[in-house]
Amino acid sequence: MGDSAPGEQSSSTAENPERIRLRDALSSRTPRDANELARRSGLAVGRVQSLLGLLALEGVVGQTSDGWRRIA
């Protein structure tokens, strides 16, 4: 009861669609600022900044003087 079928993710482990959109907007080579990432992802700048902080804590993104880039 309440168990997920094999191969399905539970709602607690499913990836947030906003995080996916932001990660897709990031480059591993070219740093991008929050405004550019918001434009590319379709998210609000404030939401992008919040998600970047979370992704940085997880080691997924890094910040340089020129902006943010994907590192993992």
From TrEMBL:
It comes from the Bacteria. Residues 1-40 are annotated as: Disordered. Residues 16-39 have a biased composition (Basic and acidic residues). It holds the Pfam family WHD_DprA. InterPro entries: DprA_WH (IPR041614), WH-like_DNA-bd_sf (IPR036388), WH_DNA-bd_sf (IPR036390). Residues 9-67 form the DprA winged helix domain. Gene3D superfamilies: Winged helix-like DNA-binding domain superfamily/Winged helix DNA-binding domain (1.10.10.10). This is DprA winged helix domain-containing protein. It comes from Microbacterium suwonense.
